[in-house]
């Protein structure tokens, strides 16, 4: 009885090895390290867990998508039965958004930092890009949205989201410096001494696609200076005080730019976008907080 109990405990501690056999695996995605190099087999115990997790995802992806569609269809049916208006469908909303005229200001998310992040943080970047896309497509005056340095790692990470190729985002494998005229580029970085008061037309504002928990503070500013690109910081200190460090995620910066371009005053835009937990409140006078306490390149 004791041996049987130990066996069960062992099984419960390692469920990953009990959920699949080789006969269950239809898609074998392989396994790569953080630098994209194919790992040789046999895998270590830890690598095996990661591989099985990836196998489960790839093999269940289609089934999961079908279940999501079925649930959405059932929700629509129940809403119609209850005379609840769910608004336009995703298909009609997408068509409507594609027909809307974009303002002549662009946002670029620079994804040239893949090698500086672990897999978990790369997924956070993708999640924030997804939020930016969602915010932009619901705007009456969406920004031109670009993602540059779109490499193999990011393509693999973002492929978890079916149909990303059809998003209203322009993906470029090259760096922004090879795609846009340098005089039209502007890097948003908190280390800059320049404070932005308005966003210019026919200009592309760059946000660093980096979740680094402040390990590479100042990197985006350094890149902008080296490349001879204009740079500036958002006027947070002029309009709001915050209880915490002024660390903004990619989607925070994106939405602030979008709202100001929509005509929302800076103060209102900042208060709308910044999370409640930040404790943002209106400045009566210019804050004494140093711009060094602000960051657009890190996650919270």
UniProtKB/TrEMBL annotation:
Q: Where is the composition biased (Basic and acidic residues)?
A: 1-12
**Coiled coil regions, renumbered to chain:** 52-82
Record field: catalytic activity: guanosine(9) in tRNA + S-adenosyl-L-methionine = N(1)-methylguanosine(9) in tRNA + S-adenosyl-L-homocysteine + H(+)
- GO cellular component annotations, sorted alphabetically? nucleoplasm
Q: Give an example GO molecular function.
A: tRNA binding
The cross-references to InterPro entries, in alphabetical order and at most eight, read:
MT_TRM10-typ (IPR028564), MT_TRM10-typ_sf (IPR038459), TRM10/TRM10A (IPR016653), tRNA_m1G_MeTrfase_euk (IPR007356)
Q: What class of enzyme is it?
A: transferase
Q: Which GO terms describe its biological process?
A: tRNA N1-guanine methylation
EC assignment: 2.1.1.221
UniProt keyword annotations, A-Z: Coiled coil, Methyltransferase, S-adenosyl-L-methionine, Transferase
Region Disordered: what ranges?
1-20
Q: Which domain of life is it from?
A: Eukaryota
PANTHER family, alphabetized: TRNA (GUANINE-9-) METHYLTRANSFERASE, TRNA METHYLTRANSFERASE 10 HOMOLOG A
Recorded protein name is: tRNA (guanine(9)-N(1))-methyltransferase
């Amino acid at each position: 009885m004791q041996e049987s109990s130990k066996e069960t405990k062992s099984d419960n501690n390692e469920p990953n090895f009990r959920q699949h056999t080789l006969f269950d695996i239809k898609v074998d995605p392989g396994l790569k390290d953080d630098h994209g190099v194919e790992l040789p087999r046999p895998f270590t115990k830890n690598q095996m867990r990661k591989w099985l997790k990836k196998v489960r995802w790839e093999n269940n992806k289609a089934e999961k998508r079908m279940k999501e569609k079925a649930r959405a269809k059932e929700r629509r049916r129940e809403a119609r039965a209850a005379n609840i208006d769910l608004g336009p469908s995703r298909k009609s909303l997408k068509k409507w958004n594609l027909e809307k005229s974009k303002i002549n200001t662009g946002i670029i998310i620079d994804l040239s930092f893949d090698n500086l992040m672990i897999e978990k943080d790369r997924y956070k970047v993708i999640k924030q890009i997804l939020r930016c896309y969602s915010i932009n497509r619901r705007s009456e005056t969406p920004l031109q949205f670009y993602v540059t340095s779109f490499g193999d790692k990011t393509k693999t990470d973002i492929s978890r989201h079916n149909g990303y190729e059809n998003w209203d985002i322009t993906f470029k494998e090259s760096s922004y410096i090879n795609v846009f005229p340098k005089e039209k580029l502007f890097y948003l970085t908190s280390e800059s001494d320049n404070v932005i008061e308005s966003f210019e037309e026919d200009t592309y504002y760059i946000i660093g696609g980096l979740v680094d928990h402040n390990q590479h503070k100042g990197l985006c500013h350094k890149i902008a200076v080296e490349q001879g690109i204009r740079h500036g910081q958002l006027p947070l200190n002029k309009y709001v005080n915050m209880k915490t460090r002024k660390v903004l995620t990619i989607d925070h910066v994106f939405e602030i730019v979008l709202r100001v371009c929509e005509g929302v005053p800076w103060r209102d835009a900042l208060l709308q976008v910044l999370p409640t937990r930040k404790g943002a409140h209106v400045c009566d006078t210019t804050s004494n907080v140093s711009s060094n306490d602000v960051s657009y390149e890190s996650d919270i």
